[in-house]
Amino acid sequence: MKLFVSSMSKGIEKLIGLGLLVVGGLILGSRKKLEFTKKSNCDLLLKSFNDVISIHPNKVVNLRRAHETIRKKITHYFYGKPHLPLPEYYIQGSYKMKTVVENRTTKSDVDLAIIFPSFPGVKLETLQNHVRNALWNHTTKGVIVKDPCVRLTYVRDFHIDLPIYFRNQVDGQLYFGSRGNDWTPSDPKAFVKWFKENTNNRPQLVRIIRYLKAWADYTKTKTRKKLPSGLALTLWAIDYYKPSSRDDIALFQTCSSILNYLKEYFQFQWSAKMPVAPYDNVLNKLSRSNKAAFYDEWKEMVSLMAEAVSSERKSIAVSKWKRVFGKRINEAIILS
């Protein structure tokens, strides 16, 4: 017995010219509805893949140790600068939201926000240089100053980005410092709160975000193309999430819904706006050519997923997921 895609509104049932691309539950070139087969069930495979792309417990221990050491060194350094306030710290980003994945270079990007309780009274560049000095020779790979942060790179496992904020004592608003942009309202704690509210009791949605990040990492490595950030994919996944009893179907349906959105705004007038300050569109740094390349890759991914979930043979379905995620899924095959 087969499960059928529920019909969508006529306004969404648009076909896109790409072989066996599925939109709105129809297969291009025919009026036949796409059928989800039991034989194509790769739910356990994807859940095993989720384990594969998770940070190893040993690395988590190393990260915690690194955070503690960094905090101690920076705090000790600023004790010797009585004209500057002592900073506070907050782990932000995907690590905090449990959506960080091991990328293909096994390097994990983790953010540790440095938050000054009041306006420091000096330029951002001065603060960044102070942080760099505090951590000088901390690792053999060194510390560098980038526009949005100070980056501390470790030999193998990860690098830690240190963005700098200050808190406005009048209204409590946090301001983020980035070279060339001065100080901008931004609140990493508010975003994490928003994320948790929107993913509470929805573990499948969190896994889908991780699958999309793994796909993006594989695709960037394979094509050398610039794609939307993991933050943009996270915002879209939350907005267009389609739950299912199977992770493979939920992922396909969510990505199809996102594709419908991309198609509707085909001139690349896409938006992935932050739900908290600064309420900006996180796609702003992508050029038109970047967006066009991403659109083609996304269509190809959805096409492969359509073939996977409608396959009458498990082996064919697995082969399609290999093309979506690359060879790393072989580790998940062993686990599943």
Describe the structure.
With 336 residues, the protein is α+β, with helices and mostly antiparallel strands. Helix content is 45%, strand content 14%. It has 11 helices and 12 strands. Strands 5, 6, 7, 8, 9, 10, 11 and 12 form an 8-stranded mixed beta sheet that branches. A two-stranded antiparallel sheet has the order 1-4. Helix 2 (57-79) crosses helix 4. The model is unreliable at 1-24 and 26-31 (pLDDT under 50).
List keywords for this structure.
single chain, about 325 residues, alpha+beta, eight-stranded mixed beta sheet, two-stranded antiparallel ribbon
Blueprint of the fold:
Layout: E1 3-4, E2 22-23, E3 26-27, E4 35-36, H1 43-52, H2 57-79, E5 88-92, H3 94-97, E6 108-116, H4 124-134, E7 143-145, E8 150-153, E9 158-162, E10 164-167, E11 174-178, E12 182-185, H5 188-199, H6 203-223, H7 230-240, H8 247-264, H9 288-309, H10 314-325, H11 329-335
Parallel strand pairs: 6-9, 6-10
Antiparallel strand pairs: 1-4, 2-3, 5-6, 7-8, 8-9, 10-11, 11-12
Helix pairs in contact: 1-11, 2-4, 6-7, 6-8, 8-9, 9-10
Helices and strands: which structural class? alpha+beta
Query: How many β-strand runs?
Result: 12
The backbone outline, from C-alpha atoms, is elongated
Taking the sheet with the most strands, its summary is: 8 strands, mixed
Low-confidence stretches: 1-24, 26-31
What is the terminal separation in angstroms?
24 Å
What fraction, in percent, of the residue positions are helical? 40-55%
Q: Quick gist of this model?
A:
With about 325 residues, the protein is of the alpha+beta class. The chain contains eleven helices and twelve strands. Helix 6 (about 205-225) crosses helix 7.
